Amino acid sequence: MSKPWQISLLTRWEDIEDPAFVEQWQRIMDGSDNAHVFFHPVLVRVWLDTYRPLRALQPLFVLASRGEQQVVFPLVLWRQNAKNAFLRTIVPAGHSDFDYHDPVFLVPPDDEQVQSFYIALKAELDKSVKYDRIVLDGMHEQSVPDYCKVVHQEPCLQWSLNTAEFTEGLVLPLKKKVAKETMRRMKRLKEQGELTFRHFLPEDAGDVRRSLLVMLEHHKRRWPNAYKAPGFHANLLEQGIKAGIVDFFEVNLGGQPLAWRVCYRYRGKFSLYMPAIDEAFSRYAPGHISLAYALAEAKKSGAVTVDHLRGGEDYKNAWGGTKTLIYDAVFNDNSLSSRMRLGFFKLLQQAKAARARFQVK
User: Fold this and answer.
1) What are phi and psi of 294, to 5 degrees?
2) Which of 60, 96, 149, 338 has the most beta carbons within 10 angstroms of its beta carbon?
3) Could you report the per-residue pLDDT of 270-308, keeping only the tens digit for each?
4) Rounded to whole angstroms, how far apart are CA atoms 32 and 70?
């Protein structure tokens, strides 16, 4: 008979800020083969610092062990407002802003270990936490609990950077037609002025803030309904660049920035997070140009894998790669109070959708 899981829930802010816990957390991350950048202590801290003033959050950080296996899983209890039927929802730290939320296992787990961990975790949550639902977004297939219902799935694309070659200092798309077109448009762009590329360093903090402000304005024009929590991206770049896990790139024409890209760099993987362009230059494909530059910088720094993160947009296919699926999964508590809240929440969502359809008409 296998040993039972030992589950600890850290439910006070002082607990998760304790240097001893952060050191243990980092040790698990450093020793794990399945650790992803989004549960790095620095990024989780950025997210918490952003959302604690905006939402009613309580930490539910999970530390678990069974034999040589250790697991860290940063969760929070989110007490939502009246517009969301006062739901008490357990979500991963980084919910809705970060792409992956798989729990981090020190030793590569098999399916039995993953599912038995989730069963033990739910038993501990049921015993000590009042909640209405659990929402686990950004989970790879092995990380989806059997007791959760999958409500959404999305492709993500990864490919090896080892065999990529440099062309005029850039890493171009594998599709030759797209690569040739990218170089043609870049040549046309250079005819209008000096084209320069910048990879911001930790000592460039002032320039990072100024460039980010311009980037966010252009991003807002392209995606006007995308929510950006106040100060989140500024803090992400400030802390992430300092820690060596966030990269920020800018493409500049004659002193005017026209494309930007925020990426993550962690343990050989280069993750493409947030691009933006000045739409006035869209005919020159500045997004492809900024990506070609960012990939070249990643290869120079020793990255071996490129991850396009969530989304199956066509432009990502130009660089090739292998698609995998990630899932959003939900578990709803069956108590009477939870069923009432969840029912009211569903009615509110239906009313919101009806208003949106009416406004469109």
Assistant:
1) -60, -40
2) 60
3) 999 999 999 999 999 999 999 999 999 999 999 999 999
4) 9
